[in-house]
UniProtKB/TrEMBL annotation:
The lineage of its organism: Bacteria, Bacillati, Actinomycetota, Actinomycetes, Micrococcales. It comes from the Bacteria. Keywords: Coiled coil, Membrane, Transmembrane, Transmembrane helix. Residues 58-92 form a coiled coil. This is Uncharacterized protein. It comes from Paramicrobacterium agarici. The chain crosses the membrane at residues 6-32.
Length: 97
């Protein structure tokens, strides 16, 4: 262990090992960043599609609610008309006028 060549080889191997460790960790970090970025873009696209479907459903339900409001208004008018007719018949039957 006193030979300079041995210490030189130890230094070269240590530097090579440290360099490989640095290279692998840098490559790994780049791969992870790329995969996370890809996943982010896929999720954004899927969420946009889902939101569009929900918006379409809400629009469709708004149309149905408008039709239902119209039907309820017509039903209310008919009930009011029937109520007036029943009141008139009741007054006529019992002679209340």
């Amino acid at each position: 262990m006193t030979e300079p060549q041995v210490w030189t080889l130890i230094g070269v191997f240590a530097a090579a090992l440290f360099g490989m460790l640095t290279l692998m960790s840098t490559t790994f970090i780049r791969v992870v960043r790329t995969e996370i970025s890809s996943l982010r873009h896929e999720l954004k696209a899927d969420m946009a599609t889902g939101f569009a479907a929900v918006r379409a459903d809400i629009t469709r339900l708004d149309g149905r609610m408008d039709r239902l409001d119209g039907r309820m208004d017509r039903l209310e008018e008919r009930v009011d008309s029937i109520d007036n007719d029943v009141q008139a018949l009741t007054k006529r039957s019992y002679g209340i006028e």
